[in-house]
């Protein structure tokens, strides 16, 4: 089980884990639950540049289509091909096998990120 308090979060419901200048990004369990059954994911291409706060992909569910926002500025190092093949991984394992992309973080200041307590307060979830 992932230590959810070790992650950073965005108001757009993404989680971020940064290790050695590389950020792994996914959507939170809250977002996955609100979306419903995810049926399609469009992710940015490897080696493309993404900018914090800008749309970099799309997540389609049986309920709606949502945009994926880049939480940080940098270059896409990897995308999760398993999620492209089986989008339901986002629902079944949002903090594990359902990760979406890895970004080599730009040296500029990161976007405003939330800790777990602030994210829980934002969403009104029980912690």
Walkthrough of the structure:
The protein is of the alpha+beta class and 127 residues long. The protein has a single domain, classed as RNA polymerase II/Efflux pump adaptor protein, barrel-sandwich hybrid domain (OB fold (Dihydrolipoamide Acetyltransferase, E2P), Beta Barrel). Helices cover 19% and strands 35% of the residues.
List keywords for this structure.
3-stranded antiparallel sheet, 6-stranded antiparallel sheet, globular, alpha+beta, 35% strand, OB fold (Dihydrolipoamide Acetyltransferase, E2P)
- Counting H and I runs of at least 4 residues, what is the number of helices? 4
Averaging pLDDT over every residue, what do you get? 91
Uncertain segments: none
Query: What class would the helix/strand composition place it in?
Result: alpha+beta
Helix fraction, binned, reads: 10-25%
**Strand arrangement across the biggest beta sheet:** 1-2-3-9-8-5
Distance between the termini: 15 Å
Overall geometric form: globular
How many domains make up the 3D coordinates? 1
**How many β-strands, per DSSP?**
9
The CATH architecture: Beta Barrel
CATH topology: OB fold (Dihydrolipoamide Acetyltransferase, E2P)
**Rg from alpha-carbon coordinates:** 13 Å
User: Major β-sheet, in short?
Assistant: 6 strands, antiparallel
Quick summary:
The protein has 127 residues and is of the alpha+beta class. The chain has helices at 29-35, 81-85, 89-92, 116-123; strands spanning 8-9, 14-19, 22-27, 38-42, 49-50, 55-61, 65-69, 74-79, 101-105.
């Amino acid at each position: 089980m992932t230590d959810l308090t070790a992650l950073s979060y965005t108001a757009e419901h993404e989680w971020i884990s940064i290790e050695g200048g590389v950020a792994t990004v996914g959507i939170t369990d809250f977002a996955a639950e609100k979306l419903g059954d995810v049926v399609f994911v469009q992710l940015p291409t490897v080696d493309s540049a993404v900018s914090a706060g800008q749309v970099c992909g799309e997540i389609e569910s049986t309920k709606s289509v949502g945009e994926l926002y880049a939480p940080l500025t940098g270059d896409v190092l990897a995308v999760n091909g398993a999620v492209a093949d089986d989008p339901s991984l986002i629902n079944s394992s949002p903090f594990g096998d359902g990760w979406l992309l890895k970004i080599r973080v730009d040296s500029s200041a990161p976007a405003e990120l939330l800790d777990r307590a602030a994210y829980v307060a934002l969403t009104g979830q029980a912690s």
